[in-house]
Every structure is written in structure tokens, then in C-alpha cells.
Amino acid sequence: MDLSGYYFFIFMVCFIIFLFLVRFYGPKRKDFYVSEDTRIIPGRVKREVWRRDGGKCVKCGSRNRLEFDHIIPVSKGGSNTTRNIELLCEKCNREKSDNIG
């Protein structure tokens, strides 16, 4: 009795199950990982903030040397959501940093 066809069939079934498990339980897109460095702002949040703020500093309107800034710092419990991120130019961001105690 030749069982090679049976073993091949069992192997293929196991392989298909493996592919299914990897597809649905394997690595996800990087944007959805919880990063060890919580200051890293996901790309989708950056795009939404850029659109919302019109690609300019919310304080002075400059379009040069823009930075994404946490309104409430991560160290004080702020999150990486669009509600807590704003676009500031480098100068305004440094002035804000000097005033945080």
C-alpha cells in the first residue's frame, strides 16, 4: 500500500493552515504596532495633522522647518492622536519648549 499521496495531502493541508495562520495572526503593518518609543507619531496621524493644519505653523503661519509637536507632552500623559499633535515651525516649537515647566 503506497501512502506517499496521503502524506503529500496531509502536508498540503498543514501548509495551507500555516499560511492562513500567518496571514491573520502574523505581523501587522508598522503603523499599528505599539512602539517602545511612544514619541514616534504614526504616518497616518502625521498626514491627518498636515491636512488639518494646512501644511503651516499653527502659531505664526510659516511653512518653513515644520515639526510635529505634542500639545500635551508624552512624558505628561499625552498621546499620539490627531487631537494632541499640531504643526509648529522650529522657532515656535522652541519657544513653547522654553515655557513648559
Main attributes of the structure:
101 residues; mainly alpha; DNA Binding (I), subunit A; two-stranded antiparallel sheet; 3 helices; 2 strands; 43% helix; rod-shaped
Oligomer designation: single chain
Number of domains: 1
Give average pLDDT, whole number. 85
The total count of helices amounts to: 3
- The strand order across the widest sheet is 1-2
Task: Give Rg in angstroms.
Answer: 24 Å
Q: What is the highest CATH level, the class? A: Mainly Alpha
Low-confidence stretches: none
Q: How would a crystallographer describe the biggest sheet?
A: 2 strands, antiparallel
The helix-strand sequence is: HHEEH
User: Under the CATH scheme, which architecture would be assigned?
Assistant: Orthogonal Bundle
Q: CATH fold name, please?
A: DNA Binding (I), subunit A
Give the % helix: 40-55%
Q: What proportion of the residues form beta strands (DSSP E)?
A: 5-15%
Termini separation: 82 Å
Principal-axes geometry comes out as: rod-shaped
Number of strands: 2
The structure class reads mainly alpha
Task: Write a brief caption for the model.
This protein is mainly α and 101 residues long. Helix content is 43%, strand content 10%.
